[in-house]
Amino acid sequence: MTPRAAYVHVPFCRHRCGYCNFSVVAGRDDLTEAFLEALARELSELGTPREVDTLFIGGGTPTHLKSPSLVRLLEIVKYWFPTASGYEWTVEANPVDLNPETAEILAAYGVTRISLGVQSFQDRKLALLERDHRSREVRHAFDTARQHVSSVSIDLIFGVPGETLVEWTRDLAQAITLGPDHLSAYSLTFERGTQFWNRRKKGELLPIEEDAGGQLYERAIDTLGAAGWEHYEVSSFARPGYRCRHNEVYWTGGEYFAAGPGAARFINGRRESNHRSTSTYLRYLSEGRNPVQESELLDNEMLARERLVFGLRRLEGVALIRFQQDTGYTVQQLAGEAVRRFLDMELLEETATHLRLTRRGLLVSDSLWPDLI
Amino acid sequence: MPPTSGHLIRNFCIVAHIDHGKSTLADRLLEYTGTVSQREMKEQLLDDMELERARGITIKARAVVMYYPRNGDTYELNLIDTPGHVDFHYEVSRSLTCCEGAMLLVDAFQGIQAQTVANAYASLEHDLAIIPVINKIDAVHAQPDAVSQEMEQSLGFESTEILRVSAKTGVGIEALLEAAIDTVPPPEGNPEAPLQAMVFDSHYDEFRGAITYVRIMNGKIEKGQKIRFLRGETTHEVLELGQFAPTKQPCDLLHAGQVGYLICNIKSMDQVHIGDTIADPRQLAPALPGYQEPQRMVYCGLYPSDGQDFSQLRDALEKLSINDPSFDFEPETSDALGFGFRCGFLGLLHMEIVQQRLEQESNIDLIQTAPNVTYEILTKRGDTLQINRPQEVPDSGEIAEFRQPIVRVRVILPADYIGPVMKLCQERQGVQQDTEYLSPTRAILTYDLPLAEVIYDLHDKLKSVTRGYGTMDYDLMGYVAANLVRVDVLVNGNRVDALSIICEKSDAERRGRAIVKKLKSELDRHMFEVAVQAAIGARVVARETVPALRKNVTAKCYGGDISRKRKLWAKQREGKKRMKSIGQVDIPQKAFMAVLETGGDS
Ligand SMILES: Nc1nc2c(ncn2[C@@H]2O[C@H](COP(=O)(O)OP(=O)(O)OP(=O)(O)O)[C@@H](O)[C@H]2O)c(=O)[nH]1
Ligand code: SF4
Ligand SMILES: [Mg+2]
Asked: Which residue, of A30, A156, B415, B510, has the fewest CB within 10 Å?
């Protein structure tokens, strides 16, 4: 079966934020043309346009493109991935770039959902994260998005150095007041190769204590839950009916196309990812070479294990019978010993139909996955 | 080169305290005699082991042959450069049996040091002719006159026989060579008598098998002949023989008085024993006295790190032991670490060197347990047990007397530091034996101290208290009863055998606290609380708790990059497998090393 989802990566950003390890180029707008050409060339390998149910353009900052370039991007994507009826089409945007003109263009091409990189409403946090917007710009960008698309999501980051429960609670309250349909809350991580990583090593940045991080995360779950939000995946919250369908494809073992530097695809049981370096990606395509850097064919057991882990990251858990029908494996066969141990420790629980994380299990879930994968 | 007749041979070694310039002097001698050309010359040429160059010290004694013409004769000089560090004294003592003379070097600034005295006595015990030499006379702070006086006073040399050289600039080298010929007697052996050759060293060559280093005491060996190892009780054919100059120079014959090597295609490593005698199977001569087994001072467990098996480690130990007979090893098992070896060493530096050589030369990863000395226990039943590992200590109810080794330590130091050094020794339960003055400003302090205190850090502490001017040397005196206990480490109630230590009862709590604290810092948080305790028998003396993991959940999976996450988790899973798991608690390999550090901060 051919995939019904597609991801396109746009690597441009105004500057690189200190914690960011995505496939990004900052201050290289001169590469825009080359990128669009490369993307068109990469997608032309598809041969024929592929109809999809969900589309996601992420980055980087897709809305950092100047209008004519943005138009070309949307043209290319729309040509290769025509949408089926009832589709979802998300584009990521940063508060400073999302002006009425950009939003207009997105809407005109049929974008249905904007994911806004808010990160925080506290200027202290925004400055520390080296974001280029401030709190007062968020409202404006949000309203613009609201006027043009049917669904708006925002991202928040918690657990930045020095963050208190009070500061985070304020962020959550302001988010609820703003009123998006979907919210992703991530704890800050220090990734190798980022400035934050080096600054932490030099002792300039002090990560918050593990226990404090746990409190912040629980505060998000409790506050959003009380406000009627559904916590449906480790870091994702939605108002009823507004889950991100595209992400759900990733998490439930669905297949998807992908294009752009660093983009990962999953087609015919094969996982591939493109070169993460934008310049390498551009060079390969200009030389007519394949931009794939890593490629592996997954066997059925590995597919089943991925399904298990990513399924458990969704709060409703894994439907046991369905799991066996889809993968050919029982959870018992794959990881009976570990699952029993986690059940005993009350990190996992069983309902009549599902296996799922408990609250305590959710909090330490990254320590469970190595035993299950 | 025709064989040199016995009366033209001189065999001598260079001995000295560490860093007094032995290897540099060897360079000059090799250069002056034309053994090594200017082009091939480099500093401390004979220190060719990777570790020797990296650390700037000699670890292995090296024999070289040099030729020196005088008055129409060509003399054959067999020189052995020896290491100076006390941990390698077995190398020195074996070298001494191959020589008739010794150059005793003293640094013109540092003067007589602990190993100077030790080496002077050892040379006398072997009846060697000693050539006293003051080295580094070129150095800015050199005080050759003062040093000369010290040597007269404390070692009884005549000022006229003490030579002054600079191994750096080459001043005095010719006079030194002349003195070697005049002072060192030629070897006594009879080339016509039945063969007796002393095996004083060996090493293993991947391609050629064991290379045996010999000093011919009587008779001769020819290429192609059969030889017999008297102790090894094996017979071999000599495929190649020769001398080092400093690379192998094959020849057809070695005779009484000469030093050289033999290659016999010996691939089985247990056939060569250092200290063995080689004889002619057609005409068997009696065995030579051989060497006294060196006294191992410290023991530790060596275990293969994950993925490597025990037999790989055993092969590596066997291979190394033919080049370094001064450590020993026997298999042991540990609940925590599996199958490994308990190894005995001459000191901590020796332990470190052996470990590094195993890792470098055989490409093995090791886990090492904390070092300990050998204890003696008299049981209530009247048996005496030698305890090389803390796990072997029986229950306290069965112990009549717990004894520890005591050593006599001689510290040579500037008189100004006598006070602080006495304090240092007293803190370590030392009993003062003697104070002697080398000169008005320098003294020798003699103390009896527990070996354990000496081994762990006395040397470092001495260096810091005396600003580097104090040096020490020690000899084992015997075992003395002491108030000792075994301290165990428990992780969630399970004893981790490889972490047990033996120490003074009065020190047990402090040591226990240090260990559990360190161990706590090495453990990852688990899903449950982990108690780390130190206990004497059933009595817990220190406790730390590693709280349960509260939060470990991070971010979403950006852009569907599921592979990256999966690989990360798979890697974490492999990392967990590598840890030793004790009652569900994963203990990283590093933790076993960490406890080692606490051994030092007593
Ligand atoms: N100024 C001066 N320095 C010297 C002289 N001889 C040796 N040195 C220096 O002293 C240091 C130690 O020299 P080595 O020859 O390695 O000493 P060693 O006695 O062989 O040392 P071990 O084998 O480790 O005991 C080196 O830095 C040499 O360069 C000398 O005559 N004059
Ligand atoms: S805006 Fe986003 S993608 Fe761009 S640098 Fe910052 S964190 Fe990275
Ligand atoms: Mg040396």
From this structure: A30
